[in-house]
Amino acid sequence: MKKKIVILGAFILGVFISTYIKSLDPNRVYITLGQTESIESEVENTKKEIKNLKETLKKNKKTLNEYKEAKKNGNESIQTLMQKELEEVKELSGYSTVTGPGITITMRDSERELKDGQNPNDLIIHDIDILRVLNDLKKAGARAISINGERVLATSKIKCSGATITVNDTTYGQPFIIKAIGDIDLLSVAINSPESYAKSLKDIYGINIKVQENNGNKVNLFAK
User: Fold this and answer.
1) Based on C-alpha coordinates, what's the Rg of the chain?
2) Which residues have CB under 8 Å from 60's CB, separation 6+?
3) How does pLDDT run across 155-206, given as a tens digit for each residue?
4) Which pLDDT does position 109 carry in this prediction?
5) Do 91 and 218 contact (CB within 8 A), yes or no?
6) Among 39, 206, 62, which residue's Cα sits nearest to residue 120?
7) pLDDT score of 77
8) What distance separates the 2 farthest-apart alpha carbons in the chain?
9) 165 beta partners
10) pLDDT at 22
11) CA 96, 97, 103: angle at the middle one, nearest 5?
């Protein structure tokens, strides 16, 4: 008897839900949680693109004003400005050695003992770890970055294989030494702040990360 009542109740509930769904506004669009997260991600990416475009526009306006000013001062000023832009392009593309203030980061695998049930890979540095650290440095305004002397470009491929990291098709063993040139304070915060990815690697997994500030850092040009 109880079983029949349960079945009847389930049937009535199903009919009720079906009727309710049909009664919903047909012009209204209903989305899942997964779709919501996807939309939120797209919105964030769009915001970043807009921000980058605004920064590019601002930079282009500044360059235009500099050319207008240089035109007033004659051809020599224009040549100086063009030479300055050429050096900036060479720096960004990796075709010039960059020197200046910055930081040096030395990374090694964790020396902690494995906990019961812990994955050994948790204590090893992976390519995603390197990429996240590089991304934080770029956000902090790093002008140039290298890993074990290998210049890192926007097109550089970084992948791990066991205890080694391959950068631009060249494989390196530990320690992984990352050099970044830029504002020392901003770069240091990007690595040492409580919210940074590097700090999480140190605190959670015991990854060895040491940061050294240097007023005379050097990042070599791309030599491939």
Assistant:
1) 27
2) none
3) 888 888 878 889 988 999 999 999 999 999 999 999 999 989 999 999 999 9
4) 93
5) no
6) 206
7) 66
8) 101
9) 160, 172
10) 54
11) 135
CATH number of this structure's domain 100-112+119-219 = 3.30.70.1880
Buried b (16+ CB within 10 A) or exposed e, 109-120: bbeeeeeeeeee
Q: What is the pLDDT of residues 17-31, one digit of tens each?
A: 666 555 555 555 555
Query: Residues of the chain whose pLDDT is less than 70?
Result: 1-38, 41, 67, 70-71, 74-78, 81, 86, 89-93, 223-224
Place of tokens 């049930």: 117
Q: Where are the domains of the chain?
A: 45-92, 100-112+119-219
Whose tokens are 């702040």? That residue is 193
pTM of the model: 0.62
Q: How crowded is residue 25: how many other Cβ atoms within 10 Å of its Cβ?
A: 7
pLDDT of 63: 74
In angstroms, the Cα distances linking 89 to 11, 84, 85, 97 are: 70, 9, 6, 12
- Residue 131, burial from CB neighbour count under 10 angstroms (0-12, 13-18, 19+): middle
Identity (one letter) of the amino acid at 133? V
